Amino acid sequence: MRVLHIGKFFPPHAGGIERFSADLCAALAERGAAVAMIAHASPADGKARRFREAGVDVHLAACHGQLLYAPVSPSFPFALTRLIGEFKPDLLHLHMPNTSAFWALLSPGARRLPWVVQWHADVPLDVRRPAVRVMYGVYRPFEQALLRRAAAIAPTSAAYRDSSGALAAWRDKIEVIPLGIGETAPGSDPETQKVEVAAKDTFSESVLWPGNGVRLLAVGRLSYYKGFDVLLRALAQTPEASLLLVGGGECAASLRGLARELRIEDRVRFAGHVDDAQLALAYAQADLFCLPSIERTEAFGVVLLEAMRARLPTIATSIPGSGVGYVVADGVTGTLVPPGDAQTLADAIRRLGADAGLRARYGEAGHARWRAEFTLDRCAERVLELYHSLVPASAHRAAASPAP
Fold it and tell me: Which segments of 147-222 are extended strands (E)?
């Protein structure tokens, strides 16, 4: 089986979709598939690159920035056409949303192949950027043409499938495949993780909570839909907790300003982007994880899986139509609260912060649920089963490799 993945960006570019797609490609390669990935170089770098990583041939097209979240990459369609000719895939796996995936509609080589569309999320119709809503009118016909052409569509949860207007016409070709993460956090190894989890009271100089009491961890892009402003307002009502907030984004300055306004600067650390080892250590040292997103732009929440892997109890929001409420089993692995409700969020932090036994039970139950439902191995096996249902072994192409 030879599979070409079409993505938006590739690690170390930050993002849950980017990390997952790279990990999935590596897991498929481990299972004997020949795998290539085409995506865009990070706008911060921009230069085209070709390399091999974890058994995957990675091709990054030159990128000259983003326009309303869409990579600006005039060379992408040419790179895609060339790679299809060189790599000779049996199947295309498109990670959406991604405007550059639309070039497959115009590629004769791509149109001869079956497509799997992994539906990570609908286009976020960001009310704070009206241009996105306006441009979706241009985007939607291409989106629907791509879905019409797809052999299979794989959203990440039944809840998201059922609430997605974009997917409504294509229910007959949908196969829900939840995301998964690996056994070991990047930047650590199993033995190190065991030591760190057993020694939660041992701080390092690089990862440090700014206050005493319950150590609250939140990880994600500092965007409005993540609800971190709600979390700061909840923290102002819970003096017994301190917060480590990992990530960067367009709301960083406003969130820092809100922390000053609420007079909680001494209990919040804005860590920005951290490396894999520091992030693994943060998960190991935290007492409680929180994902306070306010909109279904938060389609799944890979960071919740990372917390569950680390045996952390979770607090998340019951966003209508999102997969978050599927990932977090309310009252079993964590607590769900209404989105945007700082008071209820503060109550949940206070209750879990005061009950170490409950945190331990939620943490163990979350770890068991991750292992049963959300491992990378389980996800990769489901994806391979879908591939084989679309391309029988007798139709697989002879081995070929792209030029270095």
Answer: 152-155, 214-219
286-307 per-residue burial string, b: 16 or more CB within 10 A, e: under 16: bbbbbbbbbbbbbbbbbbbbbb
385 and 360 both lie in a single domain: no
Which residue(s) pair with 217 in the sheet?
Answer: 244, 289
Q: How many domains does the chain have?
A: 2
Q: Same domain, yes or no, for 241 and 212?
A: yes
Can you read off the two tokens belonging to residue 103?
């070039």
Q: Does residue 404 form part of some domain? A: no
Residue 400 within a domain? no
| CATH assignment at residue 115 | 3.40.50.2000
Q: H-helix or E-strand containing 289?
A: strand 288-291
Task: Report the alpha-carbon distance of residue 137 to residue 141 in Å, rounded.
Answer: 8
Q: Which residues have C-beta within 8 Å of that of residue 195, sequence separation ≥ 6?
A: none
Token pair for 83:
């790679």
Give mean pLDDT, residues 137-148: 92
Reported as a single tens digit per residue, the pLDDT across 192-206 is 444 344 444 444 554
Query: Tell me: the pLDDT tens digits for 34-55?
Result: 999 999 998 877 789 999 999 9
**Alpha carbons 289 and 334: distance in angstroms, whole number:** 9
pTM confidence score: 0.89
Q: CA Rg, the chain, in Å?
A: 21
d(CA 111, CA 151): 11
Q: Which residue segment(s) compose the domain that 121 sits in?
A: 2-180+375-395
